[in-house]
Amino acid sequence: MRILVATAAAVLCLTSALPAVAAISCGDIPAAQKFVDGLKPGPNTTKAQDHLNKAKNAGSDSQCVAELQQVNKYAAASAAADKRMASRGSRPRRVLCADTLHQNRPGGSDYHGPPVAGCPRS
């Protein structure tokens, strides 16, 4: 009897300790669209928007929820990439200027691009 009570108590403790997963429903489409609209352009954002369009045109609730789960997957990846890019924005970008062997770089005689700060003009 003690083992049964201990097992039941352990199961109750474990299930209450697990985070509650919010169920996705078709009513979340406007919120998902607003979130996707706030993301920077990229491949994951495009895939999220494609799945969102499929969710809007879904024929059943289960298909809509499945598409919204894909939207969540790609939108989360896009948001993480946006966050990584924002953290890198404070570092200056290093540009290689022309040297004797690389005249096609900025400042070289064979360079045909815009002027680059820090590289001498030829």
Describe the structure.
The protein has 122 residues and is mostly helical. It has 2 domains: 66 residues, no CATH class; 31 residues, no CATH class. The longest helix is centred in the middle third of the chain and has 28 residues. 14% of the residues are buried. About 14% of the residues have low confidence.
How does the SSE layout of this entry go?
Elements: H1 2-17, H2 29-37, H3 43-56, H4 61-88
Along the chain, the helix and strand elements come as HHHH
Inertia-based shape? elongated
Q: Give the terminus-to-terminus CA distance.
A: 90 Å
Q: How many individual domains?
A: 2
- Arithmetic mean of pLDDT: 82
Features:
mainly alpha; 122 residues; elongated; 4 helices; 2 domains
Quick summary:
It contains 4 helices and no strands. It has 122 residues and is mainly α.
